[in-house]
Amino acid sequence: MFEVSKILRDAQPTAYEPKIVSLGPYHYHKPHLRAMNQQHKWSLLSKLLEQDRSKDLKYYLKVIKDNETRARNAYPTQSMIGMCENQFVTMMLLDCVFVIEMLWLWKKSPEGIKNLAFMSDQRSQIIVARDMLLLENQLPFFLIETLFDCAFTGHPGVRGKLKSWLGEFFSGFLDIDYEAGMDSECDSTGGDKNQIQEE
Questions:
Q1: pLDDT tens-digit map of 64-86
Q2: By CB neighbour count within 10 A (0-12 exposed, 13-18 middle, 19+ buried), where does 196 fall?
Q3: I want to staple 136 with a disulfide (CB 3.0 to 4.6 A). Which of 26, 41, 126, 130 is the partner?
Q4: How far is residue 24's CA from residue 185's CA, in Å, rounded to a whole number?
Q5: CA atoms within 13 Å, Cβ hemisphere of 104
């Protein structure tokens, strides 16, 4: 996962920091993001577990653990200093589930997503969508996709839809022409056209 260069960060330090939600290890310990990490993400995990009671917390933790080495290798070592195995696995699970549940709730009802405390108004929704696109606020795409397909084994029409759902989600909140964006090699952030990064 890419890091912001020192030159860019020094020029505008706050431009590269999430305001509401952290994804991955770079901003995990930021105090202003603690409420999201400790409360809202766990609430979304509970929603996921309620959707299919045949899969419990241990099931999803095992999915992450089975892919831990590959996921760790996606980040610079220094970004995970002081983070033990259990902490990393839990963080990855909560963050991937955050993305998955946001997409699922939005897909069921774009208006229904406003029931989430941190998405109650348009401004908050735009900020969260912007946070999810930040360069240092990314997750390994393969891990989200693996968890996504595991979560929706009982929904044949849903599995394999992650990429298209992500495109539609960001198009809706950021007024992006999704079809045009998919035809472009790069987007305005200067990154790959799959913002939640794919390996």
A1: 999 999 999 999 988 887 789 99
A2: buried
A3: 26
A4: 25
A5: 20
